[in-house]
Amino acid sequence: MNPGDAISLEMSDGETVTLSTEAASVKIELEITNETRKGQVLVPHGFGLKYKGVEYGVNVNRLTKSSHRDRLAGTPFHRYVPCRVEKI
Prior knowledge:
Number of domains: 1
Strand order of the largest sheet: 2-1-5
CATH class: Mainly Beta
Shape: globular
Low-confidence stretches: none
Strand content: 15-25%
Radius of gyration: 14 Å
Largest sheet: 3 strands, antiparallel
Structural class: mainly beta
CATH architecture: Beta Barrel
CATH topology: Barwin-like endoglucanases
């Protein structure tokens, strides 16, 4: 998350927050960085791994509805999903 957004939402780096989309809500660790544009949240794709009972990261597929996709190819729009970030 962009530092300006984090300040306005009173959130801090490393804090666990709730990320909600139309499809689902997940708890995720917040990372504050200047690499993210204001108003934008980045969730690395490819995480959500469960190994020996421990879950690492968030599966972005769970945050994207199957109806939110390219109409020709049918590919989900993982990169452009409206979301809300809230303190726990």
